[in-house]
Amino acid sequence: MSRIHLVRHATHDRVGTILCGRMPGVRLGPAGHAEAAALADALAGSGATTVLSSPRDRALDTARPIADRLGLAVTIAPELDEIDFGDWTGRSFADLDGDPDWTAWNTARASARPPKGQGSCESMAEAGARALALLARQPKACVAVSHGDVIRAVLLAILGLSTDAYDRLTVAPASISSLDLWPGGGRLVGLNRCVDA
């Protein structure tokens, strides 16, 4: 059995207003760096032997202090990458409101896909499956820094729920959700534990 600590990247200045997706150059600001330091403190006694991170800058900015505190290197894991939101990337949530494709995405996350991505227009369920496949291969405790929708998809899969139920879970920035995984199964042991920066 392995203990997986799923960490959503810390706050950046576009959280909650802009759909960043795979937009380059989205970095943590001062508040996010303080949150990353608090995450490092919270995970110091986790026993993690590996720190995995999405290749997005905001995830790496979060993972590095955690890895430093644990005396480990960060391993970039494309399986933990954000969903490619295609034509929606960089648009405000206010601007997306009322878009029929956006409405379809938010009512059928298990099957809907963002428009015109860069070759990887996967559903949220597929994003969760790629991340869970990586996490299931981890032999020991690990920290995995990723993104809200990817983490929610993993958690829903472990709970045996459809990805269409994504809005039943909150995965806040700079939060930790923990799983125990074993061959053929797993269980949720902690959800959306937020740290004080």
From TrEMBL:
Coiled coil: none
SUPFAM superfamilies named among the record's database cross-references: Phosphoglycerate mutase-like
Pfam families per UniProt: His_Phos_1 (PF00300)
Classification via InterPro entries: His_Pase_superF_clade-1, His_PPase_superfam, PGM_Phosphatase
Superkingdom of this protein's organism: Bacteria
Entries under SMART domains matching the protein: PGAM
Protein name: Phosphoserine phosphatase 2
Native source species: Methylobacterium cerastii
